[in-house]
Amino acid sequence: AILKKHGHFSGKTAGCTNTIMAMFYQLGSVDIIGGYANNNKPFMAQAKKAGIWHSGSSGILPGDIIVFGRGSESNHTELAIGDDLDISGTYKGGCYRRKRSSHSSDILGYARPKYDKMGGMDDLQIVIAASDVLIGVYGTQDTRKRLLSVFGVENAQKIQDCVTEAVKTNIEDKIIAVACIADHYTTRSEERRVEKECRSRW
Q1: What is the pLDDT of residues 19-66, one digit of tens each?
Q2: How many Cβ atoms are within 10 Å of 196's Cβ, its own excluded?
Q3: C-beta of residue 11 within 8 angstroms of C-beta of residue 83
Q4: What is the DSSP letter of 102?
């Protein structure tokens, strides 16, 4: 629906690259990825032209758009959100979190959009990010520090402070909120239980 609104898509479902395009249209910032591209190959070409392309897999950060392929031929794109964790628009019949290492293709490279500097995160955003830290989304030690740097120094410190406080006290309420958002609970009865508990806590 988002792509149709911008005159780009007439099918019933969006593929991997089109899903990412829809995300950036929804954010009102498709220009920071070089504009619209209907597939991974033209996306790679325009990312290179825009000067945001990085070959290989070294240095991937949350927010980067990863292009997979075999040999020199691209075949898939995903949005990086953590250490070995992406959002895939064509996984389990929808848009879900997926381990990067589970993909059978190689990483050809990635595009780093020209994001604006991030402002201050509100309390709920801090708790959600801290919850992701607690369930291992950002890895550990130096990897965690590097990946959290995308939030900015002040936000990253607040996230770490929240994690520290959670470890000292009861972390279940913080983990359960992000688990619900990340769709870790797959049955409807579990979804209802988690939603009820989240509402009582928040």
Answers
A1: 999 999 998 889 999 999 999 999 999 999 999 999 999 999 999 999
A2: 10
A3: no
A4: G
